[in-house]
Amino acid sequence: MSYRSTSLPRPVNITESDGGMQHDTSSFHDHKDDLRKRLSYTTHKLEMVETEFDSTRQYLETELRRAQEELEKFTEKLRRIQSSYAALQRINQDLEDKMHRTSHHHEEEKRALSREIIVLNNHLMEAKITINKLREDNDLYRKDCNLAAQLLQCSKSPYRAHKMSEVKGERE
After folding, report:
1. What is the pLDDT of residues 57-81, one digit of tens each?
2. What φ, ψ does residue 7 adopt, rounded to 5°?
3. How many angstroms separate the CA atoms of 43 and 156, rounded?
4. Is the pLDDT of residue 167 over 50?
5. Greatest extent of the chain over all pairs of C-alpha atoms, in Å
6. What is the C-alpha separation between 122 and 134, in angstroms, rounded?
7. What is the CA radius of gyration of the chain?
8. 3-state SS class at 79
9. CB under 8 Å to 161, separation ≥6 — which residues?
10. 29 burial class (0-12, 13-18, 19+ CB within 10 angstroms)?
11. Which of 15, 91, 145, 146 supports an S-S bond with 20, CB 3.0-4.6 Å?
12. What is the mean pLDDT of residues 76-101?
């Protein structure tokens, strides 16, 4: 809409002559009618602008309410997200602490198991040494027994083992 500024009419010069006075009066009335028309037109335009202003204001108030409601929804969503985020941070911190404790526990357990492996390896080495020593002793005892058996077979001695046939004959 374009609004045009209109200037006020210029004052009419009233002259003393009869023809001039009448002309000025009719011109004054014409000018008065013109001003009334303009006033009516301006009033009508002002009413239209006021109506448009009211409808625009209503529209903007409605849009403002809608935007405020939407803002409230987003604010509530943001609050929930922030709350969830804070809860997740607490959970993550708890999990990190638990992982650290578990890792520390496993490291201690690993060191203890390593020490136990060393002790068991030492026992195993001692057992192998003992087994080898016992095998050597066993071999020596076997050789001694074989030697004693050979000596007993070579001579007839009262300590010699009797044959089964000799033992049966003595029992009868």
Report:
1. 999 999 999 999 999 999 999 999 9
2. -90, 155
3. 162
4. no
5. 201
6. 18
7. 64
8. helix
9. 152
10. exposed
11. 15
12. 97
Question: In this predicted model, what pLDDT tens digit does every residue of 99-127 receive, in sequence order?
Answer: 999 999 999 999 999 999 999 999 999 99
Determine the Cα–Cα distance for residues 16 and 170; give it in Å rounded to an integer: 198
Structure tokens belonging to residue 170:
């003595």
Please calculate the CA angle 107-122-116 and round it to the nearest 5 degrees: 20
CA distance 99 to 42: 81
Q: Where are the alpha helices (DSSP H) in the chain?
A: 18-154, 164-171
* Confidence tier at 26 by pLDDT (50, 70, 90): confident
| Residue 13: partners with Cβ closer than 8 Å, 6 or more residues away | 24
Alpha carbon of 13 to those of 22, 30, 32, 35, 115: distances in Å?
11, 14, 15, 18, 127
Q: What is the dihedral of CA 53, 54, 59, 64, to 10 degrees?
A: 90
What the block records as the tokens of 154 is: 């070579």
Q: Which residues contact 88 (CB under 8 A, 6 or more apart)?
A: none
Q: How confident is the model at residue 154 (pLDDT cuts 50, 70, 90)?
A: confident
Kindly provide the b/e burial profile for residues 95-106, where b requires at least 16 CB atoms within 10 angstroms of the residue's own CB: eeeeeeeeeeee
Which carries the bigger pLDDT value, residue 12 or residue 84?
84
